[in-house]
Amino acid sequence: MSGRPDADLPPDTQTAEETTEDARQDAPRVDSPEDTLVDAPEEAPEDAYEDDDEHDDEGEDEDLLAARARRARWAAAGTGAVLALAGTAAALLRAAGTAPVLAPVAYACGAAVCALAAVLGARGRTRRALWTTVAGVMVMALGDQFD
């Protein structure tokens, strides 16, 4: 383990083997309710709010999942669009230069595949958009090899 050898965990986080007699003596004790500064609130029965908690948790989970899905769609669509624009710009630059014809064609094809990935991402097919984006970038990298 890393850290100081004399550093011990608090007694409530130690396993049974690690708990020593010294650690048990150092642990704060509360013997009676009069020793506490603040009175503990009365506990409600367990079944009193059970139905409300379940509905709130389900609603929060659905909202969290919807937010994650929305972010994934935006990320996939945005990445695909940016890479499609970069591929198009590279194809135009290579076409205007002295590069062989195969280089700008590969960049243009890679840009088209990335544009397809942006469309897939916008429609919610984020896994397919990811792999389509990877394929588009690989085609553009192949075009770079022809240059």
Provide structural commentary.
- The protein has 147 residues and is mainly alpha-helical.
- It has a domain at 68-146.
- It has helices spanning 21-26, 50-96, 102-122, 126-146.
- Helix 2 packs parallel to helix 4.
- The relative contact order is 0.11.
Write the layout of secondary structure elements.
Elements: H1 21-26, H2 50-96, H3 102-122, H4 126-146
Helix pairs in contact: 2-3, 2-4, 3-4
Biggest sheet statistics: none
The rounded Rg comes to 30 Å
- How many H/I helical runs? 4
Class of secondary structure makeup: mainly alpha
Task: Give a quick rundown of the structure.
The chain has 4 helices and no strands. By secondary structure, it is mainly α.
Annotation keywords:
mainly alpha, 65% helix, 147 residues
